[in-house]
Write a structure and sequence with these properties.
Elements (H helix, E strand, L loop, with lengths): L2 H14 L57 E6 L16 H7 L7 E3 L6 E3 L13 E3 L5 E6 L14 H12 L13 E7 L2 E6 L16 H4 L4 H4 L11 E7 L3 E6 L19 E6 L3 H9 L5 E2 L5 H8 L6 E16 L5 H4 L8 H10 L2 H9 L29 H15 L5 E5 L5 H16 L3 E4 L4 H11 L4 E7 L3 H10 L26 H13 L5 H17 L3 E14 L3 E2 L18 E2 L3
Parallel strand pairs: 1-10, 1-11, 13-14, 13-15
Antiparallel strand pairs: 2-3, 4-5, 5-7, 6-7, 8-9, 9-10, 11-16, 12-15, 12-16, 17-18
Helix pairs in contact: 1-14, 9-11, 14-16, 15-16
Amino acid sequence: MNRLWRSRKVLWFAALLAFALVAAACGDSDDGGDTTAAPTTAAAEETTTAAPETTEAPPETTTTADPGKQYGGEVVVADDQEPPTLNWAVPGGDNAIVNRVGQAYWAGVQEIDGFTLELIPELVTELPTVDNGGVTVNDDGTMTVNYQIRDEAMWSDGTTISGDDFEFTYNIIMDPDLATNKAIYEDITSTEFGPKTFTYTLAQPTVQYDLIFGTIIPKHAVEGTDFETDWNETMWPSAGPFVFDSWQKGEFIKLVRNDNYWKTDAETGQQLPFLDSVVIRFIPETESIINAFKAREVDVVQPPPSTELIEALQAVEPEGAIVEVLSGPVWEHLNFQFGPGRLEKNPNSTNENLNYRKGVAHTINKDLIVDEILAGQVEPLTSFLEPGNPQISTGAWSQYDYNVETAKEYFEAAKAELGVDTLYTVFSTTSNNDARVKLSELFVNMFGDVGVEYENQLEDSQLFFGETLDNGLWDFGEWAWLGTPGFSGGISLFDLFDPELPPPDGQNVYRWGSPDSIVIDEHTARFAEIRDELNASVDAEILIPLMQEGEQIMADQVVIIPLYARLVVAAVWADEVGGYKHNPSQASDLWNMEEWYRVDL
């Protein structure tokens, strides 16, 4: 695999890990930041055309087979942010609140299931894979992906969703005059489309295909408009359960039922959605959100998490509320710097010694950390794949329990190997994040108990997520990454530690196994091979064992220490709203709003 292709992948995966370094520097709410990624591609070489079809609207449903799922009513949702735009493909469209509102009217190839946190098909009949014939690796080294669009899928104005819409979306993304993120799209070499099909070929095999074409744009409505200006305060015809109705700036956005929505309820067969409307109210202050919820002025909240807020919400559960606290996709981790810059923070750094690193792993009391920082609401992590790909995770870090005596044994072995009498650790992270400051304070006693000289050197987030990480100027550090579902999301994590791609060409800020690293051995060499093999295959039977092997190497070599996933909290008045299911992923808790119904009608 050539280096240009590898570097391009790094840029794309960095985009997918939207909450990553800069966003992880956000404030004490620990919400992981607000930005997500956008798309990319080179002009297609082969296209066919197909006119959109129009079908009649499905008949209105006025009765219900299940008296618990009545039609009608409105649900009010609170959010502490207001969208800068409604258009996902223009600057500002990568804001998290834009995606949250967009759950009402956007649709694409895939969505994230709130129960399994796995990718599931939306506009297509099934997600393409090698096994089902949707993905083909060609003899010339290219890869072809085929989508079969659902026959029933249509826009809110009754126009059939077609391959023409996919092609139009691709052309919008690739328009050189538009500031769209072209990422993997620029590696598409040809496209082909029909009334209910869309096919494209990529220059090389890559799992990145599983997250693209996530939102489709209707050609018949958008073609000929000014794309960057005409769709900021209104929205094109909906492919989702609701239609944009109105936006009262500074107050709310109102969404009303899409009478042409094509999904039906799995239990009753009723046409969805059940609700007449959903209103998203903008309430900037978290305390005001909680007060509005307590007063039943809003029905659903997903506020920035804190232990105090969770306790305040749980206090009203006896009155009919349901509060769900889940581990989210943003995960905190401890890590070691393997480049020469570590010596600027700690001239006595011994990160090169595996026994030292294992000693640190047994020194960290993760249970105490989650108890003190998250009030015991989540379990400590034993895998870096778990937040985005729990079905692949094997809990590789479970081998390191909190054990003072074991830690001391490893440290004594490290001293003997290094020929030193004392070990030193200098910890760096952001000083303007309460959780991380608390973490640094907890470490003082942990390292003291095992006889290691310990020092905190915290920094302002702008410095830490800038010069410090870019140049590897830390010894023992801590920050967060984002776990993303799908193979592309899981494999993107391996790019973060690729020995062959340190900055500025890649994301391996840890410099583990890089040319200037203090650790270059058979383990870093094998990990680099695994990374290349992961990015050269699209076969699940090959990818899963490789991902598990790679994670095991990282755990055995203690490159990092996963700590915990940040909390994502949501609450609903369950005596008013049925069908609600909290989704801690990027899809947000509005992912299944078509299934919500009023239980008090």
